[in-house]
Amino acid sequence: MLIVIVYWGLWYARNELVHGGPTFSAIKVSSFILAFILEFESLVADPTPKSLIKDVKWFPLDDNIVKFNFDAYFNTDSKSSVSGIVARESHGLIMAACIYPHLGIADAFIAEAVACEKAVSFALELDFRWVQIEGDTLSVIKKLNSTLMDKSIISLILGDIRTLSASFEAITFLFVGRQGNEAAHELARVGLQYLELRYWIEEASATVERLAQRDRPL
Fold it and tell me: What pLDDT is stored for residue 42 in this prediction?
């Protein structure tokens, strides 16, 4: 495992140099490899509680809770990403949606963490105080529900999320499979065509609306 990760880290640093990205020093490459190893070992050593996983279709919550689903699309060539966030109430109706473009994103792992952070900040902007944040990135959700000190490359982003979370009366973070996160996934994909921040209130793009309508409880 160590040999494979080291080769991958060196290959990544080499590609950055070839394609005009940032220059990686030996110390920076070593830190990158170490962070990835720690991330991998934490996932293996710390099994995910079943209570954090809902690999099902989107499901409604209590009347007082608004659910925010998030997902991210990462562009390797431009080192950019798009966060797609969809907020829905207990009957499955879209309350709000947004697309956040980001520049200077190193990899897909960071893109997912940034999307989660944007989901939390979006909930604060809308002044909701009872929320559930859902995404299909298991490692980020596990870290947010862990009490262990995080040493991965997204530790600062996780710290920002926890700081924002203190403003809510109740907030939970839950992992869902792709089937339960289709609307946010589609919104992130649609977001590739936009170069700026985009909001919807009580609606979203046509495809996302169709997916949300299909998820609504009978």
Answer: 55
**Residue with token string 């030996």:** 26
Which residue in 139, 151, 79, 75 sits closest to 109, CA to CA? 139
DSSP for 142-170 reads HHHT--SPP-STTHHHHHHHHHHHTTSSE
Contacts of 71 by beta carbon, 8 Å cutoff, 6+ apart = 83, 84, 112, 115, 135, 136, 181, 184, 185, 187, 188
Tell me the CATH number of domain 52-215, given options 3.30.420.40, 3.40.800.20, 3.30.420.10, 3.40.50.300.
3.30.420.10
Per-residue confidence (pLDDT) for residue 7, from 0 to 100: 72
Q: Domain ranges for the chain, please list them.
A: 2-45, 52-215
Higher local confidence (pLDDT), 44 or 142: 142
| Residue 58, helix vs strand vs coil | coil
Q: Tell me 79's DSSP state.
A: T
pLDDT above 90 covers a percentage of the chain that reads 39
Type of residue at 74: F
Among 35-39, 157-161, 199-203, the range of highest mean pLDDT: 157-161
Q: What is the mean pLDDT of the chain?
A: 81
Q: What is the dihedral of CA 119, 124, 127, 130, to 10 degrees?
A: 70
